[in-house]
Amino acid sequence: MKILIFGKGFIGKRCKDAWGDQAILSDARVNSKEDALAEILKHQPDAVLNCVGSTGKPNVDWCDSHQLETVHGNTLVPILLAEACAEANVYFLHMGSGCIFYGDSTHPDKAWREHDFGNPLPTYSRTKYATDLVLSTLPNVGIARIRMPIDHIPGERDLITKIAKYPKVIDVENSVTIIDDMIDAFYKLMEKKAEGIFHVTNPGTMRHRELIALYEELVDPDHTNEWITNEELLAQGLVVKGRSNNFLDSSRLLAIGIVMRPIGVALRDTMEKYARNVGKVGKNG
Ligand SMILES: NC(=O)c1ccc[n+]([C@@H]2O[C@H](COP(=O)([O-])OP(=O)(O)OC[C@H]3O[C@@H](n4cnc5c(N)ncnc54)[C@H](OP(=O)(O)O)[C@@H]3O)[C@@H](O)[C@H]2O)c1
User: Where in the chain are the domains?
Assistant: First the structure.
C-alpha cells in the first residue's frame, strides 16, 4: 500500500517512521484544494492520511486565543483534503480526537459511542468536532479518533514523558491510545477503506496513577509527584480550561476485525520498551 501523509508533526512523523517506504510524508503546506490535489496527483497514493492539525503550543489552551488559526488547521484543511481526495478518487483517513466528549455519556456503561453527539467546550475540541460532523457521512472517508497517545519513544508529546515531568498530576480515568496499536489500526483502516467514525483506543481504561506506578516500577523508582484534582488544576492556573476526561467505546473497530490490545497489556509492554529507550537516550528524553 502507498500512503500519502499530510502533517509533519508528532503523529505524521511517527507513522512515516513505522511504515518506511510504504509512506510518503508530504512537505506541502495545504491552504487550498489545489495544494492537496497537486501532491496526490504527483504521488498517486492508495490512501491519504491526514495528520495536519492545530494542536497549540505549549498546549491546546493556545487554540482559545488563536481561534481562526485553529479553525484553519483543524476544520478547513481537512475539508480541503477531503475534496481533493474525492476528486482523485483516493480513500481519505482523517485523524480525529476523542477530546470532543466531556464527562460521562448517557449509556449505562458511561462510554461514548462513535456516533454520539459530542459536547465540546474549548476551541480545539469544537474545531475537531465540526470536522467530524461534516466528514463522517462522506463516502470513501474514515475518521480515526485517538486519545492521549502513549509512546515507547520518549519525547515531549508522549503521555509518559509529559506526566512523569509534571510535579502536580490529576488522577483521572480515561480511554487512551497506545501508539504502536494506533499505527497498526490506521494501516488496517486504510487497507479496508473503512468509512465513518472509529474510536482508535485500547479496550479498557487507564488512571494516571496506574501509568505513574508502572513508570516508578520500570523506569524511575525515585520519581515523585503531588496528586491534585481536575478542579485544583484549573484553580491553580496550571491550565486555562478543564481537560476532557472520558471513556470511548471502540466497538466499530472490533466489528470490522481490527483488534487493539487491552490497555493493561499494551501499557506494560510500552513502558518496558520506554524504559529500554530511556536507557539509550537518557531519562525523559
Ligand atoms: N497528539 C495528540 O495528543 C492527539 C490526540 C488526539 C488527536 N490528535 C490529532 O492528530 C493530528 C496530529 O496530531 P499531532 O500530535 O501530530 O499534532 P502536531 O505535532 O501539532 O502536528 C500537526 C502538524 O500539522 C501541520 N500543519 C498545520 N497546518 C498545516 C497546513 N495548512 N498544511 C500542512 N501542514 C499543516 C503543523 O505544522 P506547523 O506546526 O508548522 O503549523 C504540524 O506539523 C491532529 O489532527 C490532532 O488534532 C492528536
Answer: 3-281
Here the cell at position 97 is 480526537
Q: How many whole angstroms separate alpha carbon 128 and alpha carbon 118? A: 10
pLDDT tens-digit readout, 14-73: 999 999 999 999 999 999 999 999 999 999 999 999 999 999 998 899 999 999 999 999
Q: What tens digit of pLDDT does each residue of 97-109 get?
A: 999 999 999 999 9
Q: Which atom of ligand 1 is nearest to the CA of 57?
A: 20
Q: How many CB atoms lie within 10 A of CB 217?
A: 12
> What is the distance in A from the centroid of ligand 1 to the CA of 67?
15
Residue with cell 483502516: 189
Whether the CB of 81 sits within 6 Å of ligand 1: no
Rounded to the nearest angstrom, the distance between the alpha carbon of 285 and the centre of ligand 1 is 21
- Give the CATH class of 3-281: alpha beta
